[in-house]
Structure formats: C-alpha cells, structure tokens
Fold this sequence. Notes:
By secondary structure, this protein is an alpha/beta fold. It has 12 helices and 9 strands. Residues 148-160 and 163-171 have low confidence and may be disordered.
Amino acid sequence: MLAELSSELIVEVQHTANLLVSKQRICILTGAGISAESGIPTFRDKQTGLWSQYRAEDLATCAAFARDPQLVWSWYQWRRQLVSDKTPNPAHHALAQWQQHAGLKNQPLTIITQNVDDLHEQAGSTVTHLHGHLWRNRCSQCGMLHNGANNKNSSNSITSNRNSANNSATAHHYNEELLNCTDCGGYIRPDIVWFGESLPIEAWQTAENAAANCDVFISIGTSSLVYPAAGLAQIAKQNDAKIIEINPNPTPNTVVDVTLAANAGMVLPALVKQISGLLS
Ligand code: OAD
C-alpha cells in the first residue's frame, strides 16, 4: 500500500503515524473530498464541482426554496439519484477501522462530517453530521421530520430513503413532484443545512467540544472555506492541538502543522496501516 505513494509522502505518512500514536484524543473533520473517490462530485473543484455548474443562491438557500420550491426539490432529487448507488471508498473504510480500533483502546476518535451522504456510516463509522442528511426530509413550515417509512414501491413516497432506492436497484427514479407535509400541508424539503441557516445545535456542540479537547485535529477533503465548520481547526489550535490536513490541493487553512498532499483514498489506508503496526 505504501508502495503507491511517493517516497516523500511515505516519509510524511510515517512521521504523521508516529505523531498520532503518541496522542490520545483525535478529532477528524471530513468534507466532500473524502467522497470524491466514490464518484460523488465535490462543490468547489474546478469544472467537476457542483458550484462550478450550478448557483448555490438558486438551489441551497431558504429564499431559493421560497421562490421556486420545484426547482430546488428537483435538484435534490437529482442529487439523491446521483448518490444512491455510490459506496464507501478506501478512505471511509480506513477511518472506520481506525475508529473501531481506537474505541477498543478507549481512545476517543470523533469523526465530524460536512457531508450529507452516508458513506461514513456505510463503512461502519459513527459520525456527527454538521450539514444534515441527504436521505432525510423535513417540512419547510412546521419542521416535522419525514423519515422512517421505507416505501420502495412508491416513487412518490415522502421518504427519499437511500435503502428504498437501493432495493429497487439503479432503476429507481426519484420523483420530482413536490410533496406536502401530512401534518400542516407545508412543502417538504431535504433535511440539509442551507446557506444562511444555523447548524443543528447538538451536532455543533459535539463538534466544538471535540475540537476544543483534542490533541490532534485532522482536516480531510475540505476546502476550509465554509464556516463555522472551517473554524473548528482554529478552535483546536487555540487549545494546543496539532493540525493535520489531507488534501491534494492547497487550502486557506493557516493553522496546519502537517500537510499530506494527496488523495484521501491513498493516504488514509497507508496512515491507518502504519498506526496499527505501531500499536500492535
Ligand atoms: P469543497 O468542494 O469546498 O472542497 C472539497 C475539497 O476536497 C477541495 O479542497 C479539494 O481539493 C479536496 N479534494 C478533492 N478530491 C479529494 C480527494 N480525493 N481526497 C482528499 N481531498 C480531495 O467541499 P467542502 O469543503 O466539503 O454545504 O464544502 C463545504 C460545504 O460547502 C459543503 O458541506 C456544502 C458546500 O456548500 C452544504 O451542503 C450545506
């Protein structure tokens, strides 16, 4: 596995593994880049990123939904379709393995994600979602969550559950017809945090506590442009944590101590293998 990395990167991975085994509390923040190797587009990568093809103002704000709920709903149904057959890549699997290992040794390893996909969970990790869930809906008016029922035969089901899509294989069609709340009649929207909206309080508290109390903070596959998530590295740094970044491209994150400049799917399996070797 190390053989796939450049000699410089191998040395950096070994140093990073040495650093990590000497520390107790690890906090990890992931972004769209960790799911890129599963075939899910990021937001800001040139040409392939969603925000290079679509305007966030038209699709990911409350004002956009109020103006044109049909357009916004259709776009999220299209995204569900896009993600429905995607599976975890070696980066997700490596993190899950590391978290499981750390748990057995009673070492806290908190994974926080900005991603709305469920690939971390599919790989077996326990994760805090800062930006919501692609597979969940809620009422735009009364806030009632609409999830749970798995009606795989009804493409018009209020739940756009991933399992219902998988059960009917890739042919599943995510109906673009707008849905109404069974309680108050308001339009159903995806349970995703849009620009200008607050993060879920509990998830943010978990993230902030983990960042403030960690020995090492690892930022993986995020452009570090969207706050408050991007501020977690600064919170960790203020509390004397070492900051590691895994990203093939530079970011504006100025508090980074160690950069592993390569794809997460290449670096993380090698890093976790090194850590396991050092611990056994
Ligand atoms: P971005 O699209 O802003 O950034 C993705 C980052 O992943 C970039 O820095 C890439 O260089 C990096 N990257 C690409 N491929 C990678 C790979 N294989 N391994 C590691 N890194 C890779 O995505 P986020 O930072 O997650 O908000 O964006 C933050 C938020 O902005 C998202 O959660 C979303 C978006 O608007 C909501 O949906 C609310």
